[in-house]
Amino acid sequence: MAQKALVAYASKHGTTREVAESIAETLRGHGLGVEIEDAASVHDISGYDVVVVGGGLYMGKWHADARRLLERNRRELREKRLAVFAMGPDSLEESKIAESRRQLERALAATPELEPMAVTIFGGALRPENWRFPFNRLPAFDARDWDAIRVWAEEVAAKLVPAVV
Known about the structure:
The chain is α/β, with parallel strands linked by helices. The protein contains five helices and eight strands, in the order E-H-E-E-E-H-H-E-H-E-E-E-H.
């Protein structure tokens, strides 16, 4: 029987949701049954074997809905496969990725009993027209590397689905 995965995203303006959709599509391509849901709406994870949680980094903190999902499901998540991603930097410069990783690690430290099988940082995206002042004055950017997102999802899938010989 195929494993069932939940891809939960915490997104203010939709760019993290788009990444979650890409991850879900890749996992489906490996035979997993995948549901995708806003992290704030997830209240029961009992029907899933795998949970992927992603959220944007805002002002140095991982999205509150992603953090709350881990906190309120911490007991059950100890018994499941967990993968985590965050979106943040406006470029893929090594120093910006490293700072975003530190921010995500601080967030994950609140649930030290959880040991994700995969953790990563993706570049973020900003569409100023979707934001209020003063952020609507910032220049638009999109540092999402769709190839890296797909590769990470493939790596997660490889840890879940036995290789076909």
